[in-house]
């Protein structure tokens, strides 16, 4: 299998003049991208970075992030991208844990890197800002340098992503060139992307969705249109101006696009392929997205940083809630929850924990120096996802939530996702999230947090649930109207914040109980 450095060289050979990268007024062909990546290979070497080393990048989706990603692939250096919003303490942790030998910041992360104690002890590079002692990424990329050869092989490490760390310190997920390339090839195939495609590069390059978008475009001689941070109006302008063909976003961002006042006037004619991942899309939003874009393909991609693809559904609107069947490089099982045994497979229709084979080409091999995490999640050649789900009679997978998110009320299991999908169909619900809150009698009561559209009441939502197919014990017993739902930087719902009370209530609203 080709490594990623040679994959870039192949694209440069095939289409040297094709558009590869856009950020603002910067428009680079493949030949120009390669020149800048080659210069940065020399720049990293001048900074003492060698084959097998790791560099930490805290960058928005800008040209420097793309140049450095490809420079690392050529040089056999592992790129360790982290959230550009990270604090100084978090930068300290990432540097210590990854043992990175260089750190790169931009204007958004400069202050945190400047305040990081560990960052003071390694070489530093900066993009679009001044930092004492730091080499300018732009100057290094513009320097004269020989064309860089591909110095890595398929077995070399390409990237180390960090998990979100919702309950503990983030876990490093190192991935080899071969697994990264296999995931990108699968992404191209599963989304039916054509050569010369154009995508919006808005999912962060510290997130598996962002990395996949970048690699897929450059396997196809296509263009990666950088959007440093999400802004709905800016995104809509780029979709129209750059004739975006494929969008790959978390559901939250589709919601924000559809709700923006510029959406109705935006030319969406070139957007033919839509994909979503990172979270379940409610039935209501799925219906709206399909009607608004009318794409040729609407793909639900279910996966993770550890194993890029678990399953895909290439016609998500036809069976709302379905995550489809195992991806090209995958095999899935559903086993008894809490069993830790890949042979305890449950029957069709029965809910259990979703596990994925580690024999697939896209799978990682274990967490970075976290043997206790490996022992919990990697068992007898299978990755225990921590997600709950079931297969229906057609063999399609339905992801019902996180095992830890399951609400047990009065001895009955309630999936938050199922309740959210029901509520999302009400025209008065803009967004919603469901959690279990402590209750003396029931243990947990089903509670719906709703960002409403208009003046819908708790009573109206309760009546809507009663008239639906939702089982009585699954109905929310409490509704809380909120100004916004708490989300991560990539748009994932943060249920733990709702449980702890860390959310923005709707002004003058209060909790309302359903009878």
UniProtKB/TrEMBL annotation:
Domain called AMP-dependent synthetase/ligase: residue spans: 11-368
Pfam families linked to this entry: AMP-binding, AMP-binding_C
Positions of the AMP-binding enzyme C-terminal domain: 418-492
Chain segments annotated as coiled-coil in the UniProt record: none
Name listed for the protein in its UniProt record: AMP-binding protein
Annotated source species: Roseovarius ramblicola
